[in-house]
Amino acid sequence: MAYNVAIMGATGAVGTEFLRILEQRNFPLASLKLLASHRSAGKKLTFAGEELVVEELGGNSFKGIDLVLASAGGEISKKFAPIAVAAGAVVVDNTSAFRMDPDVPLVVPEVNPQDIKTHKGIIANPNCSTIIMNVPVWPLHKAAPVRRIVVSTYQAASGAGAAAMAELEEGARAHLEGRPFEPTVLPHKAAFNVFSHNSAVGEDGYNEEERKMGLETRKIFHAPDIRIAATCVRVPVLRAHSEAINLEFAEPMSEQQVREILADAPGVTIVDDREKSYFPMPLDATGQDDVLVGRIRQDISQDGQIGIEMFVSGDQIRKGAALNAVQIAEML
């Protein structure tokens, strides 16, 4: 069976990645419709050797559509996802619009594919940092319950979209050439700099990205009691996020056990060569489907082998967004 698919937000970084992944994975398409804002309507994008014209997103865009892959921003999804569902489509939404809605499943296919069956027309794709953390943590949590996660992220410009990636490149050129440069996409200069994630900071001192990682992980794992503390940071990397993850387990978990579990875990590749000091790096993770995991070691600050440290890198646009959504669609 082949499906009529629409991509909402087709000209963005995630939208164009949808096109690549649908082609690479030979998704069963009867038709493909590209939808974007008025200013992008009329643009041409290539898919499977053919040029497709981008159409303006509107209330009548979803007639005859079976599946919508959405990545056009939260407010756009809030407006148009219900319209698409009413027209008979299933929406896999890559924004934050529906993630914490109790009636909308929040899915990482390697973790909770069974939740897809509970959908009422909309399935939410988690935040990129959440996905990249959850893929390697989940198989460990199944083996021995995780009680606490402390995570620090090193997030690429790609998390803020194609415009932020372009701004990082231009800022780097300006810095090296000694030219003045003021950012307009990100709040601070990204080139040769590190700054706190550019999401709103609440009264508790945590920003939205940090709260998402905790709230979403507890929902995905169906584990409301896991304690999670995150610190999310932007780094001068074009694409692929990295994370330093500290896990506290309810029972002993040895380094060797972690290696054996992750060696067989779906969506994970172990990159951990201590002799050559070669571990997960965003340059290696870029374009990869798997999350790279390394620096696996016992947390020496905890007694009884209940703590594990590791470092991961994952392609934010791919597994952190578009690939995860297409995997959900395949399972549908």
Automatic annotation (TrEMBL):
Gene3D superfamilies on file: Dihydrodipicolinate Reductase, domain 2, NAD(P)-binding Rossmann-like Domain
Family: Belongs to the aspartate-semialdehyde dehydrogenase family.
Signal peptide: none
Gene Ontology biological process: diaminopimelate biosynthetic process; isoleucine biosynthetic process; lysine biosynthetic process via diaminopimelate; methionine biosynthetic process; threonine biosynthetic process
Protein's UniProt keywords contain Transferase: no
Organism: marine sediment metagenome
NCBIfam families, alphabetized: asd_B, PRK14874.1
Annotated ranges, domain Semialdehyde dehydrogenase NAD-binding: 4-119
Statement: the UniProt record of this protein carries the keyword Cytoplasm: no
PANTHER family: ASPARTATE-SEMIALDEHYDE DEHYDROGENASE, DEHYDROGENASE, PUTATIVE-RELATED
Catalysed transformations (reactions): L-aspartate 4-semialdehyde + phosphate + NADP(+) = 4-phospho-L-aspartate + NADPH + H(+)
Pathway the protein contributes to: Amino-acid biosynthesis; L-threonine biosynthesis; L-threonine from L-aspartate: step 2/5; Amino-acid biosynthesis; L-methionine biosynthesis via de novo pathway; L-homoserine from L-aspartate: step 2/3
EC number: 1.2.1.11
Transmembrane segments annotated in the record for this chain: none
Swiss-Prot/TrEMBL keywords: Amino-acid biosynthesis, Diaminopimelate biosynthesis, Lysine biosynthesis, Methionine biosynthesis, NADP, Oxidoreductase, Threonine biosynthesis
Taxonomic path: unclassified sequences, metagenomes, ecological metagenomes
Name of the protein described by the UniProt record: aspartate-semialdehyde dehydrogenase
InterPro entries: Asp_semialdehyde_DH, Asp_semialdehyde_DH_beta, NAD(P)-bd_dom_sf, Semialdehyde_DH_NAD-bd, Semialdhyde_DH_dimer_dom
Oligomeric form and interacting partners: Homodimer.
GO molecular function, one term: protein dimerization activity
